[in-house]
Task: inverse folding
């Protein structure tokens, strides 16, 4: 905290890391469970090492990947209204990444004169640290309390609120959880809110499967590289020796579940040893490893998910083509 002699414009940064906590599920545990299962799977949070974060940034610029542009357009149109509705003095962001679009909201809250603290929560340490450095320079006087952790486990470590709080979960990242985990994450997020607080949630909407599949299988192959990056993470962190080019990138819309599935399909039979785990993993030719789901929502699904977490809709905001939605919600008022 600034002392009495600290000039009022001096920024403060505090960063806490929870990744080494005993309850922090690690790549080793996820790989052991997911690569020995009958249908191989790894959670998408492991995409985001420095290279994965850079590839994701490139994805957001691709002509086929509309969600980032659509969400930014909604934010640009609605940021002032959101600042007025929330009067937030604190912005807590889950999966903050580079906080590129967040600046639109921070600008509006800063201009409104309410903003005091930004709390980025992300599993990627370098992103939390660089984002804290950048934002304290860009917004003089802003306090940044970064939390390096997994929002499936570490939301209890989000610091006590300093005033009306706006929790933001942008990009459609909530769609990267299966329904049961999604329900748990939304309930945990709701527990960060008090009656004056709000949640701003980004959800990608159901649309033509061809548009969806192109967004996850772009012509330049950037998403394919992002997908294969998880194999490079396994090689580096767990001592595997997989050739990423032995795996084909697959992105398919599953109409039953209304989600995109990204998979890596082995082009040939091979065996690899994860030396750090003493684990041998066999891939049959054509065998697939599921690396991500990305759920697409209907308005009814969003409302139902919010309601299940004890949240009620305050505003439904969408872009002119209704590609993406941002919902502002708050705790359901007691009857
Ligand atoms: N919010 C940004 C970034 C989205 S990319 C945007 O809208 O563009 C997803 C971000 O969530 C990455 O920065 C990744 O590191 C983070 N992330 C993914 N799974 C996570 C988890 N389980 N816990 C914490 N952060 C996670
Ligand atoms: C971060 N998340 C919401 C992205 C998505 O669209 O599901 C990750 C991504 N995967 C492939 N392209 C982008």
Result:
């Amino acid at each position: 905290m600034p002392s009495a002699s600290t000039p009022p414009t001096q920024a403060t940064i505090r960063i806490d890391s929870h990744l080494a906590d005993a309850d922090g599920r690690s790549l080793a545990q996820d790989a052991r469970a997911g690569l020995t299962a009958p249908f191989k799977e790894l959670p998408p949070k492991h995409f985001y090492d420095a290279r994965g974060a850079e590839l994701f940034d490139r994805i957001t610029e691709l002509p086929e990947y509309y969600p980032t542009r659509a969400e930014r357009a909604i934010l640009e149109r609605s940021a002032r209204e959101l600042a007025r509705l929330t009067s937030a003095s604190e912005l807590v962001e889950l999966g903050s990444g580079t906080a590129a679009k967040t600046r639109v909201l921070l600008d509006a809250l800063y201009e409104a004169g309410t903003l005091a603290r930004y709390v980025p929560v992300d599993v990627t340490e370098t992103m939390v640290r660089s984002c804290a450095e950048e934002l304290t320079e860009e917004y003089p006087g802003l306090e940044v309390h970064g939390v390096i952790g997994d929002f499936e486990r570490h939301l209890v470590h989000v610091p006590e609120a300093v005033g009306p709080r706006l929790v933001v979960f942008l990009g459609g990242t909530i769609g990267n959880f299966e329904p049961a985990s999604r329900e748990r994450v939304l309930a945990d997020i709701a527990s960060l809110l008090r009656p004056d607080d709000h949640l701003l949630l980004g959800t990608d909407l159901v649309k033509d499967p061809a548009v969806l599949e192109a967004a996850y299988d772009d012509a330049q192959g950037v998403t394919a590289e992002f997908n294969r990056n998880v194999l490079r993470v396994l090689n580096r962190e767990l001592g595997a020796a997989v050739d990423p080019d032995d795996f084909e990138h697959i992105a398919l819309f599953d109409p039953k579940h209304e989600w995109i599935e990204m998979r890596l399909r082995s082009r040939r039979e091979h065996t690899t040893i994860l030396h750090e785990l003493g684990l041998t993993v066999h891939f049959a030719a054509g065998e697939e490893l599921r690396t991500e789901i990305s759920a697409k929502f209907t308005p009814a699904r969003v409302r139902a998910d919010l309601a299940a977490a004890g949240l009620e809709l305050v505003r439904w905001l969408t872009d002119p083509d209704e590609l993406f939605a941002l919902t502002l919600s708050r705790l359901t008022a007691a009857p």
